[in-house]
Hints:
heterodimer, A: alpha/beta, 10-stranded mixed β-sheet, 6-stranded parallel beta barrel, globular, B: alpha/beta, 9-stranded parallel β-sheet, 41% strand
Amino acid sequence: MVNENLVKDVVKEPYKYGFVTDIETEKIEKGLNEDIIKLISQKKEEPKFLLDFRLKAFKKWQKMKEPDWAALGYKKIDYQDIIYYSAPKQKEKISSLDEVDPKLLETFDKLGIPLTEQKKLTNVAVDAVFDSVSIATTFREELAEHGVIFCSISEAVKNHADLIEKYLGTVVPASDNYFAALNSAVFSDGSFVYIPKGVTCPMDLSSYFRINSGDSGQFERTLIIAEESSSVSYLEGCTAPMFDTNTLHAAVVELIALDDASIKYSTVQNWYAGDEEGVGGIFNFVTKRGKCLGKRSKISWSQVETGSAITWKYPSCLLLGEESVGEFYSVALTNNLQQADTGTKMIHIGPKTKSTIVSKGISAGNSKNSYRGLVKMGTKATGSRNYSQCDSMLIGDQASANTFPYIKSQQPNSEIEHEASTCRISEDQLFYLQSRGIEFEEAVSMMVSGFCRDVFNQLPMEFAAEADKLLALKLEGSVG
Amino acid sequence: MEIIEKIKANKSDDNLTEIQKICLHKLQSSPLPNPKSELWRLSNKSKLSNFLDYSVNEKDSKFDIPYPKNSQSTIRLIIGENCQIKLIEKNYSIQQLSEDELQKYIKEQISFFKQNENWSDLLNLSLSCKNNILGLKINGSKIPPIEIFSHASSNSLKAKTLVIFLEKNCDVELLQVNLGKENSSLSQSTFFCLKENSSVNHGVVSYGKNKSNLLNSLNVIQQKNSTYNLGSLHFKFNYARFEISIKQSAGNAKTNIKGMQITKKDEQISTYTKIEFNGPNGFLDQINKSLADDKSHAIFEGSIIVPKVAQRTDASQLSRNLLLSKLAQIDTKPQLEIIADDVKCKHGATISQLNEEELFYMRTRGITLTEASKLQLSSYFQEIISFIPISKDKWDLLDKLLNEN
């Protein structure tokens, strides 16, 4: 039965990543105008095409209106009150990790991210992004042996300008939406991955994003290109310190899969969510999209969204290639006053394309959790199939769960199936577990974990364990 | 602005009823629905403006009912044709609502109206003259079936309004038929108020002809322990919108909806439903079927709203769609908005074509492809048609659907 006090006590679980690293940073002045963009571009010594790309995006952004269709309520963002570039001060060029500021390494150690290659506990190559710039990318040499390029996007701009020029903005054009345009104008850093033809990436790649300053926004950009018959698994994690102010995070992720290539993109998003009163927290407006360009290509998104005060995120797949496959597996958990409007878009363009959507939403406290998805069968998508399943779980009678699936078909020879359900943790099941001597908290955690199992099964192993723990931690006591 | 001017040009200010004035005033600020709003986004703009193009004079041509009354006991009413009714029998009574009751109720409803959500009602009530508003109070049980007709004569835009109060413990079967004449636009708004323990089997059949248009809005308020069963069918309209809004004002009520829309040629027919549970223990079972052929467009948007008070709500919604042509399209959006935690809510949606395996099976048994498709379609239709309170011998809907279309 409901035990209000227990609920309140345990929900107060502190956010353990909320510390601030005291490190000298280089920041530019607040505000956004052409000069700022030129300055960012100049600081990063970018070629002209990229500056033009930024300026064009900025012009488009100025003409756009902030979208208001999502089921989210937040105070107006003052785009002139944000610092668009902030970087930890360090030596001009780093030749090895030993030269990275030890405080930075310490920070990532605290977060449990093994940046030093000696700590080969996990076979994962990491690109760590601190505020606006990439700090270090590990295992580069080993990857280079296989021809895999894994570096920060700023480095890629310098060393692989041809690839950047060819692919940047082809999946998410600068004018795609308000936040993508903003990102295109001011993006600071991010990761770049290129898997050559026929290569299966020998290890999982990972990027870790850390916002450290309270007044700067984070605008990273990720571009992953998988050439013919290649495959890669990419993990993304994010945390931020606790501030009373809201920090803006507007990222763009572009994936391109050519013939027979496969990309698996997993995210565990744990930005600071604000306190119980809803003060502070990250505003997370992210545009993620993958293009299955080649025949039989596959893009799979899996995400665990537990942080952020506001989440606005719809990882999508454009299924162009014949027999290409798109997948979306998501667990979104909201507590206290968090609001999430998340889902996916599966646009079937080519014939015999397939997509699967599995979304699990859990809302507790006073939070609001919406699934918003689009499945579209174009006129040429003969023999295509989609299956969607969206389940919501409500914990407590103050939380809300919404489902908004948009389904559109212009192709009779295709099939779309959608199902959604809403439930709560059943008291019978809780009683059963408790009567077998399982603690209340643990019983809830077990049931939530069971509810999300379809999605956790899709996560890489180390992520799955982390996600499970994260959910248990976030939810402790919020049930009664 | 055009439509407002048209109404005003037709009638001087003094001749307008108070309700017309209120609605015209509400429409003044934005005479057309916002095309960007979720409810009007997919609506064909040129078809909507075509709907409004016809003249709004109030004269109606004589109306011939397309099929005969098969039993003397059926009560038949035609909105707009001076239907005076006062039946007081042993078991039941059917009376017209007094002018005051009607005015009071409609005004109260208008106060809840929102510009985009209730645009069709606002338009209807701005257009509806006194003659075209029918208010009924129904009481008792063992009431003979009631049939109510609405139509618009060719080359005109007509508005018909129906208000029905179902008194406590009342039980009735009611069929509403909206007939679209060639080149006509009909705006039909229905307001249903179900008092405690009442129950109704409501059928809505809208059957158009060449280039007929329809805006059909249905507003239902259900009090405790009432049961509302709706079977609806819309077909052969160049442009039709069916907007259903059901409020279970204190929960503990049952709603069953089975609806179907069939589009051919370049028609567009859409159904929008909004079901609100404002109390605990509400029940909803809804199924909406669409069939789109040729170059047509079928739309379904259904929302279920379960606020915190609506604990133990059990709601399910299913949207099943058949897409039969490469040039046709179907949009469907079932949605759930839930705050109460102790609820069982689910929805599902499918879009496909006729089941090939079933077709193959039948063909191997010597049934031709056409026959086999017909068989499949008839089973698809039958689920809905059997739910509409109408005797089969009177108007064989199934035949009409399969052969005429």
